[in-house]
Design goal:
This protein has helices spanning 3-12, 17-35, 38-47, 53-64, 71-78, 82-94, 116-137, 142-174; strands at residues 98-102, 110-114. With 178 residues, the protein is mostly helical. A hairpin with a 7-residue loop joins strand 1 and strand 2 (110-114).
């Protein structure tokens, strides 16, 4: 779907301007909270004060990578320079959270895997994050929470899809024609 087609589709199925404005305002408020990384920083402060928020990003990126996890794949997933990805991974290796391993498909290729300590650390951080979210969602009606979680997942999935489609089209437009 081209950007022009996408914009026409959006115009044909456009929600009300009031709804878009309300969602936009809420996203703006949430962006400030996310930008400050409140949940992640709180988890780090409680579980592993020596870690940086970027270290959590590496662990999260590893979880989202399908197939072999390499420094390059981590950097690509995080949309950072490979040298920065390498430094972050090296720091986590030195802390015993990650280790390097040889690929079974290509022994020359270095994979990145979590250690047992890394797994337990990640589990503790997730528990703290979920506990914080549970506190925010406390008192919500079960039907409201179920509807919200389903719609929020749909919103994020659709948002990612629109972004990835536009990004892919931009990359394709920069490629020379055969």
């Amino acid at each position: 779907m081209t950007t022009k087609t996408l914009l026409k589709h959006v115009a044909d199925t456009a929600p009300s301007p009031e709804d878009v404005a309300r969602v936009s305002e809420s996203i703006g408020r949430m962006r400030l909270l996310i930008g400050r990384r409140i949940i992640g920083r709180t988890a780090i402060a409680n579980i592993a004060p020596g870690l940086d928020i970027s270290h959590l990003d590496v662990l999260d990126a590893m979880r989202r990578i399908e197939g072999e996890v390499t420094v390059g794949a981590i950097a690509e997933t995080m949309r950072i320079d490979p040298s920065r990805g390498s430094r972050l991974v090296a720091d986590l290796v030195s802390r015993g959270i990650l280790k390097r391993d040889a690929s079974q498909a290509d022994g020359r290729r270095s994979l990145v895997v979590r250690t047992e300590f890394g797994d337990s650390l990640l589990a503790e951080i997730r528990a703290v994050k979920r506990s914080l979210l549970a506190g925010v969602l406390e008192g919500w009606e079960a039907d409201d929470l179920n509807r919200f979680s389903t719609l929020f997942e749909k919103f994020i999935t659709d948002f990612e899809s629109v972004f990835l489609t536009a990004e892919r089209e931009q990359e394709e437009s920069l490629q020379p024609s055969p």
